[in-house]
């Protein structure tokens, strides 16, 4: 998550979350980590989405924090709700609504929702539909929906940048590789939550669309509930796109740091190679040499990774490995298209979840 200049006053936010596993109850996590002043949130509700800003009121449940329906989160802080009995649908859409009665200050956001969320005037959080709602393309103050399922083996965190975030995929269709992987896992009969913490524009070692990956790794991976696996994906591509990119040794040292942190917490780590990007606006030969060196390291025993998701080998043109295969190029030469994202999801060995 990161800071935005957006502020709200006396507004209802209704935000749609796509689930991976179902469950019998849930908790909400709210964040004011990048806020500039205390954030008061009240009249919080969770319900099944029925499309647009509408919800099924038969499923609506009020959410409390410490037994009360209102909470004030200090600037830099976060909050976790009490568990609420709620039948969470697997691979479904859940609407989370709350009222911001005062002035919010700078919003803590996830910039790319890749779906419509909704903002309406006044307190409409308990309504089946929202009057006068406008659409919003980000998530505001919402850090997660924790699902309770006694059969779950744990959760997998997909950690990366725009390729992980789902940039360029069909709007509202959940066709990023983490979502496609979640469906594969479910179809295999396994119960594993998949948490997407990709941030478009994020970098491994430097600030860029929020904190660096090394700075946010503890919050966005290690502190996730029930995490047992992580896939470290594409953030280093954005470092290589800098006018003055870090040397490959700095990138591989940062990767080793994240691997050691995760394994020290009992988390199995899959490391991804970096996909080709020749033809993209920030490609140059120096960056390509850095990508090759990084990928060679990921594939080597020196990386310490528990396994490798070889996104480069999956998506590259065999005659010119610095470029995408035509069937997998979205057209910007930086992001795989949906066929490429499916190929990435299909390449994950599901036996790691046994």
TrEMBL record:
**Which Pfam family would be a valid example here?**
Lipase_GDSL_2
Output the InterPro entries linked to this UniProt entry.
Answer: GDSL_Rv0518-like (IPR053140), SGNH_hydro (IPR013830), SGNH_hydro_sf (IPR036514)
Determine the domain of life of the protein's source: Bacteria
Task: Pinpoint the SGNH hydrolase-type esterase domain residues.
Answer: 158-341
Entry protein name:
SGNH hydrolase-type esterase domain-containing protein
Supply the source organism's classification: Bacteria, Bacillati, Actinomycetota, Actinomycetes, Micromonosporales
């Amino acid at each position: 998550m990161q800071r935005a200049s957006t502020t709200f006053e006396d507004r209802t936010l209704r935000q749609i979350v796509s689930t991976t596993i179902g469950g019998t109850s849930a908790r909400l996590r709210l964040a004011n980590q990048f806020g500039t002043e205390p954030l008061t949130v009240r009249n919080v509700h969770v319900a099944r989405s029925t499309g647009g800003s509408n919800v099924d009121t038969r499923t609506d449940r009020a959410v409390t924090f410490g037994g009360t329906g209102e909470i004030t989160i200090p600037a830099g802080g976060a909050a976790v709700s009490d568990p609420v009995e709620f039948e969470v649908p697997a691979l479904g859409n859940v609407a989370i609504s709350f009222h911001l009665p005062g002035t919010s200050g700078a919003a803590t956001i996830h910039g790319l929702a890749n779906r419509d969320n909704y903002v309406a005037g006044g307190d409409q959080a308990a309504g089946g539909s929202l009057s006068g709602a406008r659409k919003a393309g980000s998530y505001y103050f919402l850090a997660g929906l924790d699902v309770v399922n006694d059969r779950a083996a744990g959760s997998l965190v997909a950690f990366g940048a725009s390729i992980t975030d789902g940039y360029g995929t069909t709007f509202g269709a959940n066709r990023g590789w983490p979502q496609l992987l979640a469906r594969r896992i479910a179809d295999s009969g396994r119960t594993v939550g998949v948490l997407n913490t990709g941030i478009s524009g994020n970098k491994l070692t430097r600030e860029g669309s929020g904190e660096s990956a090394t700075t946010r790794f503890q919050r966005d991976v290690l502190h996730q509930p029930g995490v047992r696996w992580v896939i470290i994906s594409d953030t280093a591509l954005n470092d290589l796109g800098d006018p003055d990119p870090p040397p490959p040794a700095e990138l591989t040292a940062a990767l080793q740091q994240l691997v050691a942190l995760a394994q020290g917490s009992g988390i199995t780590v899959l490391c991804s190679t970096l996909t080709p990007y020749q033809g993209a606006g920030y490609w140059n030969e120096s960056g390509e040499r850095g990508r090759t060196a990084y990928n060679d390291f990921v594939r080597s025993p020196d990386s310490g990774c528990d396994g490798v998701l070889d996104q480069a080998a999956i998506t590259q043109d065999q005659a010119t490995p610095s470029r995408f295969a035509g069937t997998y190029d979205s057209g910007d030469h930086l992001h795989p298209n949906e066929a490429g994202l499916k190929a990435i999801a299909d390449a994950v060995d599901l036996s790691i979840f046994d």
